[in-house]
Specification:
Strand content: 35-45%
Radius of gyration: 35 Å
Number of strands: 12
Oligomer: single chain
Shape: elongated
Length: about 170
């Protein structure tokens, strides 16, 4: 009988508040064993949120009798501190014998930004000036042309009326 090994790992054990990290649940097992992945809830320990889940990837190891299955979860936390991600249990069915295999527990450290209190409050950066585009200026150009055309027609019609000529000949 070959050993079945389940592990849990993180991309990084230290993150800043709001950063995202991948949690990997993986299991090595013989080909003839059926494995059911654990159901990971939307929140872990009520402070770690699961943002997304990948499909289960299956790989054959060098030995043709062994397989590796991996599922990745994108997680984040919005509160600083040290959080323990508990072990998850894989259900296995080996020739009708049903058993469970646990992963290892992991610790996630969530850090805050360092704040320098000696400087006091600072201003918010002003937005940078973006260049003006033709699409933004085009209505003003058409407005000036329209006003110019109206003034021209008004002066032209007044001049024609003073000479007692029809406006359009």
């Amino acid at each position: 009988a070959q050993r079945i090994k389940a592990t849990a790992s993180l991309d990084s054990a230290n993150i800043l508040i709001g950063d995202q990290v991948k949690l990997f649940l993986e299991i090595d097992h013989p080909k003839d064993v059926n494995v059911q992945f654990p159901a990971v809830p939307d929140t872990i320990n009520s402070l770690i949120e699961v943002i997304s889940r990948s499909d289960v990837d299956t790989f054959e190891l060098d030995d043709e009798k062994l397989m590796k299955q991996i599922q990745a979860y994108t997680i984040t936390s919005f509160d600083s501190g040290s959080y323990r991600i508990p072990p998850y249990w894989f259900k296995i069915d080996a020739n009708g014998n049903i058993d469970s295999v646990p992963t290892n527990g992991i610790t996630l450290q969530v850090h805050t930004m360092a704040i320098d209190t000696t400087k006091g409050p600072t201003d918010i950066k002003m937005p940078y000036a973006a260049p003006v585009t033709l699409k933004e200026v085009l209505p003003y150009i058409f407005g000036v042309i329209l006003i110019g055309a109206i003034i021209f027609l008004a002066l032209y019609s007044i001049k024609r009326k003073k000479k007692n000529l029809p406006i359009f000949a």
